[in-house]
Amino acid sequence: MKDIFSISMVIPKMATWKVRIVDFILNWMPMLQIGKANRLGRRHYELKNVLFGEAAINDTGLEVELIGKEQLSKTGAVTIVANHPGGADVLATVIALGRERKDTVILANELICIDPVKDMLIPVNTMSKKKVDMEDVHQAYRDGKVIVFYAAGKNSRYNKAGILRDRRWRTTFLELARQYNSPVNVMKIGGSNSPLFYKVSKFRESKRWLKNVPLENFFQLREIMEARGKLTMHLSKTIRFTNPAEEGTKPELRAKVDRLYNFLYTMNDDNLDFEQYETSAKSRASNS
User: Fold this and answer.
1) Pairwise CA distance, residues 200 & 157, whole Å
2) Which domains does the chain have, with CATH numbers?
3) What's the rounded Cα separation, in Å, for the pair 77 and 135?
4) Long-range contacts of 197-206 (CB under 8 A, 24+ apart)
5) How far are the Cα atoms of 18, 50, 159, 207, 220 from residue 210, in angstroms, in the given order?
6) pLDDT digit string (tens) for the chain, length 288 residues
């Protein structure tokens, strides 16, 4: 029975005997919880995608709730842009959106693109110049799937004010939405990584020789296995390009992405309408 995580996923060309040794060590390191994740995978090896996700959170004690799920179009390509707080956010996304549409795909760090949910994930190699095979993304649009982007490209970090925030979002998701005339939904995900994750991240950032070695990413499975309680997610009302031909310049896309980013951090049960947010923002600007 195949483990859901092996060092061979990270270093495919590693010799088999070396893989066995490294995997043995990793499985016995309680701090990483890789062994625990592999045991969970073996318990539910016959399950795939959303069913595996549901079994996994039943084991770990996590509950996932998506507020605004009725906003998600039932057919056709949809672009979802979400914050990336960490913890079990990818698994929660698999479950929350997969419950509504089985044809959901998520761009996610290849370290957590485990076999049971690989059909719903497009791997992102954070260590490579070519981080993702864009043909996979284009094919998902052509197939009319729900495509989820964590537009920051990495887990959120605490800013100087002590608030957990994504870094500035990239514009790729909106460029693709415009290209395929896809509706857009913003999804706000609750939760965070553990203090250990941020300590490892700060340690790495303080060492010049570790600058390009994302040590904290090796704790991603641990963050999933440690997730507990209720994780709440909010999905916005659908946002559409009113005139794709007029909203295609880089400055216009950049400005709109920044506004979507700001909107996400205001979202709650009663605030899921981006157009209403825009109207309010313009009103405040004109009165100031």
Assistant:
1) 12
2) 61-287 (3.40.1130)
3) 15
4) 197/86, 197/155, 197/223, 198/157, 198/158, 201/157
5) 23, 36, 21, 5, 18
6) 567 788 887 777 889 999 899 889 888 888 888 888 889 988 998 999 999 999 999 999 999 999 999 999 999 999 999 999 998 999 999 999 999 999 999 999 887 788 889 899 999 887 677 789 999 999 999 999 999 999 999 899 999 899 999 999 999 999 999 999 999 999 999 999 998 888 888 888 887 777 766 677 778 888 888 888 999 999 999 998 766 555 668 888 899 999 999 999 999 999 999 999 998 887 777 666
Distance CA 276, CA 274 (A): 5
User: What is the pLDDT, as a whole number, of residue 27?
Assistant: 87
DSSP assignment of the chain? ---S--GGGT-TTS-HHHHHHHHHHHHT-TTTTHHHHHHHHHHTTT--HHHHHHHHHHHHTEEEEEETGGGS-SSS-EEEEE----TTHHHHHHHHHHTT-TTEEEEEEGGG--GGGGGGEEEE-TTSSS-S-HHHHHHHHHTT-EEEEETTSS--EE-TTS-EEPPPPPSHHHHHHHHTT--EEEEEE-----HHHHHHHHHHHH-GGGTT--GGGGGHHHHHHT--EEEEEEEPPPB--S-GGGS-SHHHHHHHHHHHHHHHTT-BTTB--HHHHHHHHHHHHHH-
Contacts of residue 269, defined as CB under 8 A and 6 or more positions apart, other chains included, come to 67, 234
What is d(CA 79, CA 186) in angstroms, rounded to the nearest whole number?
A: 9
Residue reference for tokens 């079990």: 88
Instruction: Give the C-alpha separation, 175 to 257, whole Å.
Output: 10
